[in-house]
Amino acid sequence: MSFLVVEKVGHHYFSPSSATKALEDVSFKIDEGEFVSLLGPSGCGKTTMLSILSGLIMPTIGSVTIDQKPPASHSNLIGYMLQQDYLFPWKTIEENILLGLKLNGRLDEVSQLTALYFLEQIGLAGVEKQFPRQLSGGMRQRAALARTMAVNPKLLLLDEPFSALDYQTKLKLEDLVFEILKEYGKTAVLVTHDIGEAIAMSDRILLFSANPGRLHKTFEVPSSLRKLKPFDARSTEEYNILFQEIWKELESLEENSGPKSPV
Ligand SMILES: Nc1ncnc2c1ncn2[C@@H]1O[C@H](COP(=O)(O)OP(=O)(O)OP(=O)(O)O)[C@@H](O)[C@H]1O
Q1: Pocket of ligand 1 (CB under 6 A)
Q2: Whose CA is closest to atom 5 on ligand 1?
Q3: pTM for the whole structure
Q4: Fewer Cβ atoms within 10 Å of its own Cβ: the N or the C terminal residue of the chain?
Q5: First-to-last CA distance in the chain?
Q6: Given pLDDT bands bounded at 50, 70 and 90, which one contains residue 188?
Q7: What CA–CA distance (Å, rounded) separates 190 from 169?
């Protein structure tokens, strides 16, 4: 039995005057420890899918299970990392990182020491007592990673977490997040617009088409790339071949995309 199972999921957004079909008949499975990316044109339902996986919204039709239970019953064990770090500016880095544990009633000496060890592991030792405004964008995103990992999530949902960073910082953070998630055997789902990032970080890529959002095609990342850090993977022949393949598929999707789908 797979860790995460999405079965025939469809989703509509309703307003008093209209309805938008964001997702239709989406099914896929993810095993524990897998890193899967959701890729596709704007409006194909990637963020909607992530919100459904998080339990924040319920699908209009179909089902999602994580460890055989609905996502909402795991809400304390699903970590979210977003484009913005959403650190509280009036709290120190340490207070921000321990906040999730505190809110979940799981803050004790051991969890605190683990969280602070983690901070050290990602190169933020010494900034515990500083405030977010005193750190660079890359450091703040690392702090956001530490906060996400502090609650020891079963599943990490990453919604374009590197897209607001400069290119060099983005590449460094991709390597860091990749290594940390592999070391701790975490399952992760990444939403990205960046084909290269998806190839360099994932085991599998799910390409969505839009209007309405459907799972169009799945790409397996070659095992030779999986052994490399994302930065090193980017300079291989296998990476270039897969990049071209996905690029062509995306282009054909954009050529064939029709008007927005009403209900
Ligand atoms: N809260 C909402 N109310 C109404 N429609 C929405 C809402 N959120 C998303 N949509 C619509 O649902 C569809 C899917 O949106 P979603 O944000 O999930 O796509 P996406 O692939 O993440 O897009 P992007 O890549 O641009 O972030 C789009 O047509 C969007 O306009």
Answers
A1: 13, 20, 22, 40, 42-48, 213
A2: 13
A3: 0.91
A4: N
A5: 34
A6: very high
A7: 18
Peptide bond into 153 cis (omega under 30): no
CB 221 within 8 A of CB 205: yes
Could you write out the three-class secondary structure of 148-213? HHHCCCCEEEEECCCCCCCHHHHHHHHHHHHHHHHHCCCEEEEECCCHHHHHHHCCEEEEEECCCE
pLDDT at 262 over 90: no
Pocket test for ligand 1, best of 47, 158, 215 (most atoms within 8 A of CB): 47
Protein residue with its CA nearest to atom 26 in ligand 1 = 42
Q: How far does the centroid of ligand 1 lie from the alpha carbon of residue 206, in Å?
A: 17
Give the ipTM of the model, two decimals please: 0.97
Residue owning the nearest CA to atom 23 of ligand 1: 43
Look at ligand 1, atom 6, and give the residue with the nearest C-alpha: 13
Work out the mean pLDDT of the chain and round it to a whole number: 90
